[in-house]
Specification:
The protein is α/β, with parallel strands linked by helices. The protein has 10 helices and 8 strands. The protein has an 8-stranded mixed sheet with strand order 2-1-3-4-6-5-8-7, with helices on both faces. Helix 3 packs across helix 4. The longest helix is centred in the first third of the chain and has 15 residues. Bound molecules: thiamine diphosphate and magnesium ion. The site of thiamine diphosphate has 18 residues, from helix 3.
Length: about 280
């Protein structure tokens, strides 16, 4: 039986008060509740403060280029779909540099869980506007105000018929719900996006935990995540009230289930025939 202490890792190099600590600890709790041992999953990330997360717990990990966690996670899952594959990214990493990968990972529906630490800022590089920064916000590199409209990750994912779309809040009041959502997302068979609202004590003085606490609420009991149109409508709600919860769920065949060469057995466990390498023999296609 795995315990929280089994997931003890190195001391994180994050600012005191950063929401990343709560996300890391909540993920550990979710893994413990799912009784998942470190060898059963892998975490893939790119670059950024959020992307450091897999350094801070014992696990299989791949830390790659900025914006490129999803292509690596896809490769990992297609090579060994017995492994639970988690991807962790910042809002810049995933919605900016990695935006195009996100679109196509959602379409492909590889069974990956993506946690986005959305602090509405490029934090590692000290405070430039990210794709989720509000329009008009003055930053060090946007002294006349951010000229771009913010990207709405939930509306985008629902429009693409993403298999699982959720939002959670990393403030103290939101953590039990974040844990539940993390567990549901990990267990979901298909691509799961969890956008996690998080503070940045150093470079986002506007969207503080206090700011969120007054606005965030849970989607009401009886809300039907199978209703795509309603999910889209609710995903547009932002401002004085910000809904959290599982917005949309659509169980459809995953990429792995649709590929005959790997459907029955992960590629990693299939026999290899080195003697046939280079010959015009292909066993599967
Ligand atoms: C291709 C590329 N572009 C830009 C950078 C510089 N860079 C590194 S981290 C980062 C911002 C990360 O922001 P985010 O993904 O939101 O993570 P956070 O630090 O806020 O957690 C940028 C712009 C880079 N390393 N590679
Ligand atoms: Mg960020």
């Amino acid at each position: 039986m795995i315990t929280f202490d089994d997931y003890k890792g190195q001391k994180p190099a994050w600012c005191p008060g950063c929401g990343n600590f709560a996300i890391l600890n909540t993920l550990k709790r979710a893994l413990v509740e799912l009784d998942m041992e470190p060898h059963q999953f892998a975490i893939v990330s790119g670059i950024g403060q959020a992307a450091k997360l897999p350094h801070y717990l014992p696990c299989n990990l791949f830390n790659g280029l900025h914006g490129r966690s999803l292509p690596v996670a896809t490769g990992l899952k297609l090579a060994n779909h017995d492994l639970t594959v988690l991807a962790v990214a910042g809002d810049g990493d995933c919605y900016g540099e990695g935006g195009n990968h996100l679109l196509h990972a959602i379409r492909r529906n590889v069974n990956i869980t993506l946690f986005v630490h959305n602090n509405q800022v490029y934090a590692l590089t000290k405070g430039q506007a990210s794709p989720t920064t509000r329009a008009g916000k003055v930053t060090k590199t946007q002294p006349f105000g951010n000229p771009s409209e913010p990207l709405n990750p939930l509306a985008l994912a629902i429009a693409l018929d993403c298999s699982f779309v959720a939002r959670a809040f990393a403030g103290a009041t939101g953590l039990p719900f974040l844990q539940e959502i993390m567990k549901e997302a990990i267990q979901h068979n298909g691509f799961a996006l969890v956008d996690i609202l998080q503070n940045c004590v150093s470079f986002n003085k506007e969207n503080t935990f206090h700011w969120y606490k007054d606005r965030v609420y849970r989607l009401e009991e009886g809300y039907d995540p199978a209703d795509r149109v309603e999910a889209f409508r609710r995903s547009l709600e932002w401002g004085q009230k910000i809904p959290t919860g599982i917005f949309y769920r659509n169980e459809r065949e995953t990429c792995e289930q649709q590929l005959p060469p790997i459907r029955e057995m992960p590629l990693a466990r299939q026999p290899v025939f080195p003697s046939e390498a280079g010959q015009e023999v292909n066993h599967f296609f």
